[in-house]
Amino acid sequence: MAYKDFRDFLDTLRKEGQLLTIEDEVMPEPDLGSAGRAINNVSDKSPALLFTNIHGYQNASVAMNVIGSWPNHALMMGLPKNTPVKEQFFEFARRWDNFPVPVKRMDSAPFQEVEINQDVNLFDILPLFRLNQYDGGFYIDKACVISRDPSDPDNFNKQNVGIYRIQVKGRDTLGIQPVPQHDIAVHLRMAEERGENLPVALAIGCEPVITTMAAAPIGYDQSEYEMAGAIQGEPYKVFTLPGTNLDVPWGAEFILEGEILAGVREFEGPFGEFTGHYSGGRSMPVIRIKRVYHRKNPIFEHLYIGMPWTETDYMVGVNTCVPMYQQLKDAFPNEIVAVNAMYTHGLVAIISTKKRYGGFAKAVGMRAMTTPHGLGYCKLVIVVDETVDPFNLPQVMWALSTKMHPAHDVIILPDMSVLPLDPGSNPAGISHKMILDATTPVAPETRGHYTQPLDAPLATEKWEKIFQDLLSNQ
Amino acid sequence: MTTCPRCDSTKAEAVAKSPVQGAWTVYTCPVCFYTWRSTEADKFTEPSKYEPSFKVNQADIPNAIQVPTVPSRTNH
């Protein structure tokens, strides 16, 4: 099953008790950003938020925390809302293997109801607001940004859909952060080498599957739309913006059409980031918006970002674990069991694996650091036995407590690459990395006293199932 | 023209007024691109009360690190 559009998903959240509508008047600042922070402080099963009465606006609606909990993430995939995280991971991985699913092309889109093509003023069109106290301005941080490869513009697979931090800097200008490792930075580099602007479209308020895929580290020539089709189990609906070659999500609430200006860099930031620290101010590319489309009574979707856990961590949790899992499986198909790379977008990762021989787990840890995502993350990799659930942190702590020997199982690799936003990196982008081998030693590594592990009572699994059924019916 | 609370430029200007008349005004600074709303707490709107460690020195702006750097033009 697939959600038709953003509103369809909000309806499902409402029916499932996972949408909280706030009709009392709120201030744009500090209420909206504060609420986005607070909802994840009070619960890990938190609902999405829909604000319908914002001081100074008429008929503005702001949605936040839309996939900001495991129940909402499960519903994104069409699963029961109480599906355990580990099961969501394996189901996501199973569907991933159905890639690619060709898109469904539509002749018109709901966002064509309203078109603004002159005197664009984003501050009038969008109910913008400041998230964190010292953000340099008002941001758009959950838009799907679509661009084409300028050297191969007809290649659908090289069209990119990604999420980047975007500062609204003027009536029709935006700042964007294309980190060099991101696909859009590849497109921009090609365009700038030619001295050409890069056409882009921003889609705001999309159903959650394309947002999830836009935030996933998939291959350069893999289509996010065709992956979204695999995850949702049916072709993804796209609409080609008139006068462009950009395919955008059909159900979007808002579309902003414009260009990244070749060779232009302007001061941007700081912005409160997913590392729990501000980014500092840097000089970044600029987008000029020339046309805006939106539905009538559009809903503006925003995302709170800051010290984990926030909606960001749910959004980039499973969709980061699965590609790393697939890449490790390519190397070690019979050993890798599961990957949990959900901590600060995978700066800490936990891998569950079988062992072929002594030292094997350490090699798995090093391989994780050389996956595409691991090159910028995986500052700490914890490797655990196949019997340890990497999504169950008490189990992981037990493995560290009992299996790891500091003299043998702590590997430090000096001066490795890491994302520059890591506030501990020095210089920015360089950090030592560490592997903690918390697996049981195997031959020829025969140290320790591990021959009598404790098994659970015989009918434990049966009772787990009974309790899961009973609890899900409550 | 208004003074920017963050970089003290005097070139900031109003870019939007609230749809409900008189509720608020949004300003942006064309020098450091700080944006604020008139209804925010004074520590975000008044130059003398803005947190010193987040103030921006106008002289530093041209030296900000480029992300990503602008590549050289090549012939395609």
From TrEMBL, chain A:
Prenylated FMN binds at N160, V161, G162, I163, Y164, R165, Q181, H182. GO terms for cellular component: cytosol. Binds 1 prenylated FMN per subunit. Mn(2+) binds at N160, H182, E224. One of its GO terms (molecular function) is metal ion binding. Residues 10-87 form the 3-octaprenyl-4-hydroxybenzoate carboxy-lyase-like N-terminal domain. Keywords: Aromatic hydrocarbons catabolism, Decarboxylase, Detoxification, Flavoprotein, FMN, Lyase, Manganese, Metal-binding. It is an enzyme of class 4 (lyase). Residues 107-308 form the 3-octaprenyl-4-hydroxybenzoate carboxy-lyase-like Rift-related domain. InterPro entries: BsdC, PAD_UbiD-like, UbiD, UbiD-like_C, UbiD-like_N, UbiD_Rift_dom. Belongs to the UbiD family. YclC subfamily. It catalyses: 4-hydroxybenzoate + H(+) = phenol + CO2. Its EC number is 4.1.1.-. Involved in the non-oxidative decarboxylation and detoxification of phenolic derivatives. The keyword Manganese applies. SUPFAM superfamilies: FMN-binding split barrel, UbiD C-terminal domain-like. This is Phenolic acid decarboxylase. It comes from Alicyclobacillus acidoterrestris. PANTHER family: 3-OCTAPRENYL-4-HYDROXYBENZOATE CARBOXY-LYASE-RELATED (PTHR30108), FERULIC ACID DECARBOXYLASE 1 (PTHR30108:SF17). It holds the Pfam family UbiD. Residues 314-438 form the 3-octaprenyl-4-hydroxybenzoate carboxy-lyase-like C-terminal domain. The active site is at E273 (proton donor). The keyword Cell inner membrane does not apply. GO terms for biological process: response to toxic substance; ubiquinone biosynthetic process.
